[in-house]
Structure formats: C-alpha cells, structure tokens
C-alpha cells in the first residue's frame, strides 16, 4: 500500500528555496544599482564591470534554485 519512499511536500524546503531565490534576486538588484550608479540608466551594464560578480552570483543562485525546484517537483510527482 502506497510508496514507502514517497517525498513529502516540506515547507522548510520550500521556504529555504524561496529565501535562496530572493537572495539571488537581491544580488542581481544590487548589481543593477551599482551599474546604474556607475553608468547611468541608459548605459548600465550589470553583467560586466565591478557589479559583474554580484550579477553572476545572483544568476547562479537563481539557476541552482530552479534546478533544485524542478528536481523536487519531479520527485514529488513520482
């Protein structure tokens, strides 16, 4: 009866992933603010220059979160 290894939906996992995703968005936001301060709205390039590490860290966090979420959803479905 039922699956012994069935994954449960966990609010801890979910809130953790949301916090990580928000952290990633925060890093990207910080990179954008730095880029705009440096180059103005029109010429802002968050993906290079001093703000690049912030920007790419944020992208990386979002990608990792997305992959983990996708795997988790698949595991919940199975």
3D structure, described in words:
The structure is a single chain. With 78 residues, this protein is mainly alpha-helical. It has one domain (15-77). Helix content is 76%, strand content 0%. It has two helices and no strands. It is elongated. It starts with 10 loop residues before the first helix and ends with a helix. The mean pLDDT is 89.
Order of helices and strands: HH
Global Rg:
17 Å
Tell me the overall shape.
elongated
Tell me what portion of residues adopts beta-strand conformation. Answer: under 5%
What average pLDDT do the residues reach?
A: 89
The class by helix and strand makeup works out as: mainly alpha
Residue windows where pLDDT falls under 50 for at least 5 positions:
none
> What does the largest sheet look like?
none
Indicate the percent of residues in helices.
Answer: over 70%
Distance between the termini: 15 Å
Instruction: Quickly count the helices.
Output: 2
Tally of distinct domains? 1
**In total, how many beta strands?**
0
């Amino acid at each position: 009866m039922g699956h012994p290894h069935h994954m449960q939906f966990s609010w801890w996992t979910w809130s953790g992933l949301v916090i990580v995703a928000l952290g990633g968005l925060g890093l990207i936001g910080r990179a954008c603010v730095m880029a705009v301060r440096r180059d103005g709205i029109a010429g802002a390039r968050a993906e290079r220059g001093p703000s690049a590490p912030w920007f790419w860290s944020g992208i990386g966090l979002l990608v990792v979160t997305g992959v983990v979420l996708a795997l988790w959803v698949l595991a919940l479905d199975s």
